[in-house]
Structures are given as structure tokens and as C-alpha cells.
Amino acid sequence: xxxxxxxxxxxxxxxxxxxxxxxxxxxxxxxxxxxxxxxxxxxxxxxxxxxxxxxxxxxxxxxxxxxxxxxxxxxxxxxxxxxxxxxxxxxxxxxxxxxxxxxxxxxxxxxxxxxxxxxxxxxxxxxxxxxxxxxxxxxxxxxxxxxxxxxxxxxxxxxxxxxxxxxxxxxxxxxxxxxxxxxxxxxxxxxxxxxxxxxxxxxxxxxxxxxxxxxxxxxxxxxxxxxxxxxxxxxxxxxxxxxxxxxxxxxxxxxxxxxxxxxxxxxxxxxxxxxxxxxxxxxxxxxxxxxxxxxxxxxxxxxxxxxxxxxxxxxxxxxxxxxxxxxxxxxxxxxxxxxxxxxxxxxxxxxxxxxxxxxxxxxxxxxxxxxxxxxxxxxxxxxxxxxxxxxxxxxxxxxxxxxxxxxxxxxxxxxxxxxxxxxxxxxxxxxxxxxxxxxxxxxxxxxxxxxxxxxxxxxxxxxxxxxxxxxxxxxxxxxxxxxxxxxxxxxxxxxxxxxxxxxxxxxxxxxxxxxxxxxxxxxxxxxxxxxxx
Length: 533
Ligand code: FAD
Ligand code: SIN
What we know:
The structure is a single chain. This protein is of the alpha/beta class. It has a domain at 231-335: Succinate dehydrogenase/fumarate reductase flavoprotein, catalytic domain (Flavocytochrome C3, Chain A, domain 1, Alpha-Beta Complex). Helices cover 33% and strands 18% of the residues. It contains 14 helices and 24 strands. The strands form 6 sheets. Strands 21-19-14-22-23-24 form a 6-stranded mixed beta sheet. A 5-stranded parallel beta sheet has the order 9-3-2-13-20, covered by helices on one side. β22 (504-507) and β23 form a beta hairpin. α3 (60-70) packs across α4 (77-96) and α13 (443-457) packs antiparallel against α14 (463-481). The longest helix has 20 residues, at 77-96. The radius of gyration is 22 Å and the shape is globular. It binds flavin-adenine dinucleotide (FAD) and succinic acid. Flavin-adenine dinucleotide binds next to α1, α2, α5, α6 and α11.
């Protein structure tokens, strides 16, 4: 038996929840399939906050400019304009729905983060912004009678008929068996892929499944080489790589090497508030120079009372791990945090595969370019989640849901349980990604990574392992193609930015890497040949 619904949403982070609310607004039946419990997502762990133009001394042009500068020449200006303009509207709506951002005397409090020219970051319960967003969005979605949320429903492939995405294969959590669900359209909101790396701030659900599923179904992927490494993940032996928010440096935290010396002034005049890629590479250089596996984040000048109020969650988590953020030097080193690339979409979340929409971290809308400005991701999930939901309704309402199963014509194939070596495969891929496709890359390291991934992919893999290694290979191939350094992508053999690479990388199944001038394929997009090295 297969299931039928009007619209299928995969994922219940900020993008998936917001998309579902848009879809349900039309009266349609919406089935949300999500891998773990509903609240488990990158969104849930977001600390710093959400960037939005709401304070009196801010304006949209400033937020747009900051976003464009961070994106290092590869942002889509229309996408950035949409993000900023609609961001204000959708955040106000969230507040009306009961999201409690921190206030002082009734007025919203705005925090500072790196590369923002104004204090414009809203936060909740100090450093638990994501958890508050998830709480309020789940409550809001719960009021929509047509939303049916299915937790612990892991999806591994999309169903394509006659060149159109019509459904999803998932593991039914009750029957414990593969099952199919069909609808008028699928909105992919599966989030990021931090787990591709050995060291990551992301929770275990962030394995990039949606990107691989979309790729195998025939959608184009863009800018996969751009990975953001967060500079300050806790580096305690045996402990998870818990994030120590950028907001801590925004409030005055400083970085010191193992000899206790502040070092960022030797690397960038913006010191601790330089863009993340610069801080991450500076930390790596400093660790190499001093022969250490970490540097320290020093918050001791800020005072215990302030730190407890501003960073209660971080304070509590560090205390459990034996560290007092008000007194101790906190060992940190970079870890993979965010992927700027993903399923190529237009400004309404439409992918290049009819019937498939994507929003949030899984998508590449062009808002982040080569590097994401801090706290722009939650905003992107909110704005483009809402837009993708709206577009899915407007584009497909008249369609019939397929009422009989026909042959799947995508290359994604059927469910393959594989040979049970999934954990070993993942471990190997994660290590190779960290060592060869990491913060610093070069042609040799990338070629070796690709050879290894292709060898792994040739074995009898489960669908999920195949998805994982394929995604790793997409990142490595795009990184090999981009013979320059820009934003989150740093090639030691091409350390400069090169004008001829002011292009997006695009990958589709059975094709190599090609380039495009714009992410939005809808309007005047021209594909061009690879630049000459
Ligand atoms: P997610 O929130 O990751 O949701 C993805 C959903 O898809 C989850 O429900 C997941 O279970 C589900 N899923 C995944 N695979 C499958 C599958 N195969 N089948 C079914 N379901 C699946 N950004 C900011 O703007 N501000 C911040 O302060 C901030 N802090 C961060 C702190 C941390 C520790 C991390 C990891 C990230 C942070 N980010 C921050 C980034 C931001 O949280 C994410 O980019 C954003 O939340 C992504 O939202 P999303 O809805 O696209 O995906
Ligand atoms: C952080 O709090 O440092 C994370 C913010 C982000 O990723 O935007």
C-alpha cells in the first residue's frame, strides 16, 4: 500500500515547518516526513540568533551590503534583496505567533556578530534561539489541522515519473518497512551536511540526505565547494564539538594561542570579528605555529553575572564538561558548520526538477554566495521556506496526485539495504573529507579524495551510504574545479581570488562540473565553459 497526500515536506527545521504552514494555509493536506523527533534539527541548536532589520539605526541596504561582502562576489543580488526585505515581514509574523525574542524593558535586544555593520541579531533565552524558534513553529504548525507530522520517517530517495517528482520513499517507523508516499509536489527541507566531516558542530541528522536524493532524482546542484567552518567549536578530548557561539566574540571574547597571546591582530585588522573563514584559517595557522591542536577562547574579562545571563546554555553545557566560561580558558578549534551550496533553486524554491522544491540549508538560492554572513541562515529558512510552500501550492494545485504506481524513471533506483557496512563507510568518508577536502585544499588532496570516494561508491552500498559518499564526491569535485580561493573555499595551490571564476559551479547526474553565471535558472541564465587556468 502506498500513501497519498497533497504535498510532501521532508524535514522539520525552520524551513520545513514554515513551508508546511504556507502549504496548509491553502487548505491542502500536508505530510511532513522527518528523520528523528520533530524538534531534532540544526535549527534546534542555533545559538547566536537571527539577523533582521528591525532596529532604529539599521536599514535594508546595510544588511544587503554586509551579506554581499560576506558572499565574496557570488551572491545573487535579487535573492539577497528578497531575504532582507521579506525577512523583516516574516520575523514580525513569528513574533505575532508567540516567538519570544529577548527584550530589555519591552524593547527587542540586538546583538553584534562578525561582519555585520550594525547590531541586528535577535536572540532568545540568551543562546537558545533555535530551540525557541522550533518550539513556536511546532506550536503554530500544530494549529493547522491539515498538517500530519510523521517523526522517525527517514527518507532515502525521491520518486520521479515522466520527468516530474511525484513522491518519496521512506522507512515507515511503525511498519519498519520501506513505503512510498505520493503528492502533487515535494518540498525538500532536509538541512545541511556538516556530518560529512569528522569534526562538526552539526547534530547527527545533518547528513545532507536531501541533496543526494535530489541529485539522484535529476535536480541540479550548485556551489557545493563552499563549506563554512566555524572557528570556535569546543575542542575537549572525548567531548562533542559543541559550538561556542560567535556572539561570544561579538560580546568581547578574545582568542589566545596556547601561550596565552592574542593573535588575531597578526592576521586581520577586524581581529576576532573578521569573517569566519579568515578566523578559522588564522586559528589553523596559529595551531600549526605553536604545535597545538587548539587555541583558547577567553571570556574571563566579561564577568560571571553577564555571561550567565547572556549565555546560559553554553555556561551550563561547559560546566557539565568541567569548564567555567567565566574563569577558564576554553579550548576551541574549527569544525564544519554550514554548506552554502545545495539544490539549485530559483527565488521561489523551485529546483530544476519539476515538482521538487527546496528551502533552507539544503537549497542554494544564491543568498550566501561563497560565504554566509552569521545568523542569515535561520532567516533564509524562514523566508524561503514560506516562499517555497507558496509556490508549490500556486504551481501545482490543479494537478492530480498519481493514483497508481508506475515505473520510477529516475536514476535513484529502489531501496537497497546494502551490505551493512554503513558505519565504516561513513567514518572513512568523514576522515577523508576532513583531511583532504577541509579548510585548506589543493589539487593533489582533492584528486586523492575523489579517487577514494569513487572506489567506495563502486562497492555494494546501502542507499544511505551511497547518498553519503556521492555527496562527499560532489563537494570534492566542485572544489577541484574551482581553481581559486574565495569565501569558504581555500585552495593552497590557488590562494588568490580569480575574476574568471566569478561563476557558480553546477553539477547534475551523469555530467561533470560546469559553470553558470547565476543560481536562478529562471531568468537570463547562461551556461559557460570552464575558465582557463
Ligand atoms: P534543519 O534545521 O537542519 O532541519 C532539517 C530537518 O530535516 C530535520 O528535521 C532533520 O531531521 C530532517 N531530515 C534530514 N534528513 C532527513 C531524511 N533523510 N529524511 C527525513 N528527514 C530528514 N544559523 C543562524 O542563522 N543563526 C544561528 O545562531 C545559528 N547557529 C547555529 C548553531 C549550530 C550548532 C548549528 C549546527 C547551526 C547553526 N546555524 C545558525 C545554522 C542554522 O541552524 C541552520 O542552517 C538552519 O537551522 C537550517 O534550517 P533547515 O530548516 O534548513 O534545516
Ligand atoms: C553562532 O552562534 O556562532 C552560529 C551563528 C550562525 O551560524 O549563523
